[in-house]
Please model this.
Amino acid sequence: MKDKICEKILESYSGYYDIECNEAFGSAGSPSEDPVLYSLVARMELHIKESSYILLKRNVLWEAGSHEYAYLFRTDTFTSDDYRRFEKFVLDDGMKRIKPGQGHKCSVLSMIIVADNADREAIGRIRRCRIHKSFRFALDGWMDFRTGLAVLSSGRSFSNMSGHENRGFLNKIMKKAV
Model:
């Protein structure tokens, strides 16, 4: 069931996002070697550039770029230790990709997890996650961290406040997969 949900998620993202599947996922390596890379299914990227000009395209008034980096993880039982490891990985990898400065409006880091089961503490951490960063008092843009967790045993999904779109998306995917 997890594989089917992950395939549907990747299929949904494939229309707009650049998808980089994790080659280590499903390989002969064991989860004890690197549990994060073992659980990582794919990283998806979306880049949007908006601009306004007068008369000719070379007379640009303003331009702004929005970026999203989404990370899809799959695990049997989602624990608070998994949450800490996944969050650290997404923040470290995502912050390397963000290039604040002129023309950078915002970047979103999305952590999407598909699990058979999840413990209460891990669900609580998902819901309480509040990570937001402004670059140079938001003159160079900002970064927002969104979460999404699909628990297949209960058929429910969870997210933080800024990830409510991820939660709705996961609910739709789970309904289609059933």
Q: What stands out?
A: The chain has a mean pLDDT of 89. The radius of gyration is 17 Å. The beta strands are 18-21, 40-53, 60-78, 104-118, 132-134, 142-151, 156-158. The longest strand covers residues 60-78.
